[in-house]
From TrEMBL:
This is Helicase ATP-binding domain-containing protein. InterPro entries: AAA+_ATPase, Helicase/UvrB_N, Helicase_ATP-bd, Helicase_Restrict-Modif_Enz, P-loop_NTPase. Residues 25-191 form the Helicase ATP-binding domain. The lineage of its organism: Bacteria, Bacillati, Bacillota, Bacilli, Bacillales. It comes from the Bacteria. Transmembrane segments: none annotated. It holds the Pfam family ResIII.
Length: 420
């Protein structure tokens, strides 16, 4: 099979914003990339399928979950082929590829994960089967879901192909990630080409006019006590740090402080860390930080105060990254022990504003039940019989469902049953 059957067409009319995307398709595909951002409900899947048909070559669709993988097949059968049975030229198993193959990022990673697995796969003929299929189009659905290892496997797969066209679709680009992660995302998906905006969906009446609000939920008394206890521990660590003569001496003798001009390249690679050292030494006492203004590129008369953010930057580097400070094992070990005891270290990073335990506690805080109740009561009072309201939550909590009127349980966590 060298092309899709010629009689495959989308069964409905295109929405205006979908027509806009399709009308500029040729221009955006000149670099063999199409990177489209579109909100949920805008028809990204059907657009991806139409682009696939227009490119008209062997295609691999990669989705983040099994449910979304199956959705791609369902949309294609229902809206394009208009049939229930899957044709033989469509495969849902990457190990048995066909002209159109739909898989997950995890399955793709399992094929390209490590050398030992590759050797086993080659013996089974999987890579040879993929090569024979000769994929010319790769559709990446919600590519921002890629973990670091999955991203590498996806790139390895793309490099294996001969000049493939990559179509990346997402509702939420990972704007909040580190620069390295963003560059990795763009390396795989290509620069952003087109965006379907929310107002376009509202204009087409595919999305209701709406306003976003934020409702603040206060932690419970017990949760506030845990947070306050953590803050007290952090304050004690801050005092210990500033008054720790050994640590202060280590930082005063740091090569970047003693001979900044010699280490200028390293300083410019980590300007935040350099700034955190200066801010710490200024806080400690008499220190001529102004002698370093030419390196900071600042003509200001003051430095920021040593707050929790700057201390996080300082300690993360001192305890886990800086070879100079790591040589003072006894000094660093004492600081590391205090931070670990407080729960302020996670995956070789220092967290002083909050920690993983507190974040998890607040994420699942039962105090949000009261906020949900207040919001529902407010909306019900205003909209009355016109109220149509959906509450989304992570868990069902079926075990919290009472089996009798006498069996009603204390509500202490979030979930469908507790909220209901």
């Amino acid at each position: 099979m060298k092309a899709f059957p010629p009689d495959i067409n989308f069964m409905f009319d295109w929405r205006s914003y979908q027509r806009r995307v399709l009308s500029s398709l040729e221009e955006h595909l000149q670099n063999r990339h199409l990177h489209l951002i579109a909100p949920p409900g805008s028809g990204k899947t059907v657009l991806g399928l139409e682009v696939m048909l227009r490119l008209n070559g062997p295609t691999l669709i990669v989705a983040p979950t099994l449910a979304i993988k199956n959705q791609w097949l369902e949309r294609f059968l229902e809206l394009f082929l208009q049939q229930n049975e899957k044709p033989d030229w469509i495969s849902m198993d990457l190990k048995k590829p066909e002209f159109l193959t739909v898989t997950t990022y995890q399955a793709l990673h399992s094929v390209f994960s490590d050398k030992e697995e590759k050797e086993d796969i080659q013996e089974d003929g999987v890579l040879e089967a993929i090569d024979r299929t000769g994929f010319k189009t790769i559709i990446l659905d919600e590519a921002h879901h890629l973990r670091a290892s999955w991203w590498k496997s996806a790139l390895d797969f793309r490099k294996r192909l001969s000049e493939p066209t990559v179509v990346a679709l997402t509702a939420t680009p990972p704007y909040d990630v580190s620069l390295a992660e963003w560059q990795r995302y763009i390396e795989l998906c290509g620069p952003i080409d087109l965006e379907i905006s929310v107002p376009e969906l509202i204009k087409e009446k595919d999305l209701c006019p709406h306003q976003d609000y934020v409702y603040m939920s206060a932690p419970s008394l017990k949760e506030r006590e845990i947070i306050q206890s953590y803050r007290v521990e952090v304050d004690q660590i801050m005092d210990f740090l500033v008054n720790n003569l050994e640590f202060v001496t280590v930082m005063k003798n740091h090569p970047w402080i003693v001979e900044p001009e010699v280490h200028i390249e390293k300083i410019l690679e980590s300007p935040s860390y350099f700034s955190s050292i200066l801010i710490f030494l200024k806080e400690e006492g008499v220190f001529d930080w102004k002698a370093y203004r030419h390196i900071l590129g600042s003509g200001g008369e003051t430095l920021p105060k040593l707050d929790l953010d700057w201390t996080e930057e300082l300690l993360t580097n001192c305890l886990f990254r800086d070879m100079y400070t790591l040589a003072f094992e006894d000094v660093m070990k004492e600081i590391r022990k205090k931070l670990s005891r407080a729960g302020a270290i996670d995956r070789k990073r220092v967290y002083l504003r909050t920690n993983k335990k507190i974040d998890r506690m607040l994420l699942t805080s039962a105090s949000k039940l009261g906020s949900i109740r207040d919001i529902v009561a407010f909306e019900a009072n205003n909209l009355k019989e016109k109220l149509r309201l959906v509450i989304l939550t992570d868990y069902i909590r079926m075990e919290d469902m009472p089996t009798s009127p006498e069996d009603e349980k204390a509500i202490s966590r979030l979930g469908v049953i507790p909220i209901f």
